[in-house]
Specification:
binds flavin mononucleotide; 7 helices; single chain; alpha+beta; NADH Oxidase
Length: 213
């Protein structure tokens, strides 16, 4: 057993700042990220917990302009459908929102869950099979935070048609799309979620409530 490191109060305070300033980023500078940074972030994401230690998250870097164009087309299609589902003020506000930085962000990462992995031997997911997908989300969350710690913004795009994106990226059939991430240096920073600032949703005080039973 090696000795565990000591995390100082200063570190905890900085971690809190990181959590407060993480943000979903939709406005990016177009300049590239330093060589090797994406590999480093993916390596750190692999340190995340996973059910049965199944490590099911697979990141695909999407550089090919034709594949990116397919993803963009899928976004536009899904976004049109989403807009049509809202009425009156919500529709007006929705149409004014910027909900992806697909055209500006220098790095696109699609995150998949390898649903056919034998790693973990099924431990922990016999009665809750979705724990595998949750494990992939944990990896994404770590990547999101570690990217922000290096000054890099991440924007999660879910306004997409998963089958179209999966087909465009030619990944194995057993891989399920969990999230499509845009990475790059943010154009602006704010301690508050943009959707809150723009009046789409308020902070829900119940979300930070702890219920005792
Ligand atoms: C699973 C997931 C999917 C999301 N999909 C989108 C999306 O398609 N477009 C978007 O603008 N933001 C998306 N977001 C970002 C949320 O809107 C954002 O996290 C929320 O508004 C709070 O803002 P913050 O992340 O800056 O704190 C997504 C976030 C998550 C966790």
């Amino acid at each position: 057993m090696s000795q565990s490191p000591f995390f100082s109060e200063g570190f905890s305070n900085e971690l809190r700042l990181l959590l407060e300033w993480r943000r979903d980023v939709r406005r990016f500078r177009t300049d590239p990220l330093p060589d090797g940074l994406v590999e480093e972030l993916v390596g750190l994401a692999s340190l995340g917990p996973s059910v049965g230690y199944s490590q099911p998250c697979r990141f695909v870097r999407v550089d090919d302009p034709r594949r990116r164009a397919s993803v963009m087309k899928s976004y536009e299609c899904a976004n049109r459908a989403a807009l049509a589902s809202y009425q009156r003020e919500d529709a007006e506000l929705y149409s004014s929102l910027k909900l992806a930085g697909l055209s500006e962000s220098p790095v696109h990462l699609a995150a998949f869950c390898d649903c056919a992995t034998s790693a973990g031997k099924g431990l922990g997911r016999q009665s809750m099979p979705q724990a595998l997908q949750y494990s992939a989300v944990m990896a994404i969350c770590i990547l999101w935070l570690t990217a922000r710690a290096r000054g890099v913004g991440v924007g999660w795009v879910s306004i997409l048609e998963p089958e179209i994106v999966t087909r465009a990226l030619e990944v194995p059939e057993s891989w399920e799309l969990i999230g499509y991430l845009c990475l790059g240096y943010p154009l602006d920073d704010d301690p508050e979620p943009e959707l809150m600032r723009l009046g789409w949703e308020k902070r829900d005080i119940r979300a930070a409530t702890l219920i005792d039973r």
